[in-house]
Design brief:
Helix content: over 70%
Number of domains: 1
Shape: elongated
Distance between the termini: 35 Å
Structural class: mainly alpha
Radius of gyration: 21 Å
Strand order of the largest sheet: 1-2
Strand content: under 5%
Order of helices and strands: HHHHEEHH
Largest sheet: 2 strands, antiparallel
Number of helices: 6
Length: 174
């Protein structure tokens, strides 16, 4: 804990729950912001590496592993947001007479394209699609050097990892 931060002290349990509710809602908002930043960072890095990859295709093969790492960070924040939502809905809202989490539970995932909720399709599609583009650029002038084979192998593993991770997060939405 930061020693300079002054945390309010609750006078009773209800006030403590209200303070906890506020802190948890702030954490959710911050994690949503971080998720959006992860996607923005992935697109920025994709633009740079894929741009350079058009003249040196091996450079494009670096991107899929970076994207897999960013996707893991995105998924971790998504899972934590969901855990906070469950806690708020099940432990705090009933006691406080609030209902936002209960009201929005399930609604977040109602808008779908096929079996995929849009809330998952946008980031997962961004990560996976840019990874596939990078691999395509990388193999466009493939010279079969050991470095290219190693990068290609790592990239395929990265795409599979991102896909599996996306499916795991999607399954937890139900």
């Amino acid at each position: 804990m930061d020693k300079d931060v002054q945390y309010p002290i609750a006078k009773d349990s209800r006030e403590g729950m209200i303070l906890e509710y506020g802190v948890l809602r702030d954490e959710v908002l911050k994690r949503i912001e971080i998720r959006h930043q992860m996607v923005s960072i992935a697109l920025t890095i994709a633009g740079v590496l894929l741009g350079f990859g058009l003249t040196n295709p091996t450079v494009a093969l670096i991107y899929p592993l970076i994207a897999a790492s960013l996707a893991a960070g995105w998924a971790q924040n998504d899972i934590r947001i969901r855990q906070i939502g469950i806690y708020v809905r099940e432990k705090l809202e009933g006691e406080l007479g609030l209902g936002w989490e209960a009201h929005t539970f399930g609604k977040r995932y109602e808008t779908r394209v096929g079996i995929l909720p849009l809330v998952m399709l946008a980031p997962s599609g961004t990560f996976i699609f840019t990874q596939i583009i990078a691999i395509g650029i990388g193999v466009s002038q493939f010279t079969s050097t050991p470095v290219e084979w190693m990068l290609l192998f790592v990239d395929v593993v990265g795409v599979i990892f991102t896909f599996v991770l996306s499916n795991r997060v999607r399954r937890e939405l139900r």
